[in-house]
Amino acid sequence: MRLRACAALLLFLSACATPAPSPRERAPRNPRIANLQRAAKLPWADGGRCVVREASQPWPVLMEKCYRTLDHDRIELHDTTGRCTVASADAAAVGLGFCVLAAPEIAVGAVIVLGVVVVGVAIKEALDAYELRHAYPEEAGTSQGTKVSSRQTDAQREPKLKPEPAGQDWFPPVPPESPERERPPECRPVPVRHLGGNDPHNECADKIPNNSFPGWDVLVNGKNFDGLVLTTRTLWDVKTDDFERQPLRSQRFFVRMKLPELRREAKLARDCGYNFVIGVRSAAHKAVLFDEDPTLKVVVMDWC
């Protein structure tokens, strides 16, 4: 409760102390990305998972939720302005460190990080996902309810003979002779909106461990996949039906009906250099799939 009171106070202070932006400063900025960029400068014991989960909250609230996941052994916090000392008894009670970090604007010298900061894996993936969503016009057209063909977009890009800056590349630069550069444009992962009508399925897909695009499907090689883990180059197809409740004979029939499409998805992923994983909700479903086709990789999703 004391942390919550302190966070509320800091929100109030930010509203009172922050000057009104000039017309030039009113360009829209994604507050979630601003929080991720700010958090990327700090060391996190959990790889930044809490930050990614709470990034849409105002910064003081995010710090309230995630303060305990900081690597406190690597940071020194100093109340250089004296604001935290006098601002609130609650702030002093929970510690000046939280107050310093949760402040709307951190004063110079208030936070000293010991050693080199390696951006948390979860934070990096979230920032990279945001970069990718805005790198391709296909995704922008989808989010606005319009359709932009891949061929049209590629044709527009062809006159650009100069290589893009390294900072805009989604995957790390690779040598010219690498097969990565030989893959066709349709192998580039493009985040697209979830297909509607099945919210529980989409929620399950969003929780895939290390999913690089929670809240989105990923279009690769003409197919909408339920998830993509870029760190392992793995595409996912999620199955959330109540398989184990069906009679054994029906289970086998169900798998055999779905098998051709699963094999097709596996090939589409493989042709673009990705691994392919099928996520199911029960060990029974996994067992029947493996029995029908041992080449498919199947994972029981304990988070659904």
Q: What structural keywords apply?
A:
304 residues; alpha/beta; 2 domains; 4-stranded mixed beta sheet; 13 helices; elongated
Number of strands: 9
Proportion of residues in extended strands: 5-15%
Poorly predicted runs are 7-28, 87-94, 137-181
The secondary structure category is alpha/beta
What is the overall silhouette? elongated
Task: Give a short account of the largest sheet.
Answer: 4 strands, mixed
Q: Average pLDDT across residues?
A: 74
**Rg calculated over all Cα atoms:** 23 Å
Return the domain count: 2
Q: Helical stretch count? A: 13
Q: Helicity range of the residues? A: 40-55%
Protein name: DUF6310 domain-containing protein
Pfam family, one: DUF6310
Keywords: Signal
Could you describe the 3D structure shown?
The protein is 42% helix and 12% strand. It is of the alpha/beta class. It has 2 domains: 2-123, no CATH class; 182-300, no CATH class. The strands form 3 sheets. The protein has a 4-stranded mixed beta sheet with strand order 6-7-8-9. α12 links the parallel β7 (234-238) and β8. Residues 7-28, 87-94 and 137-181 have low confidence and may be disordered.
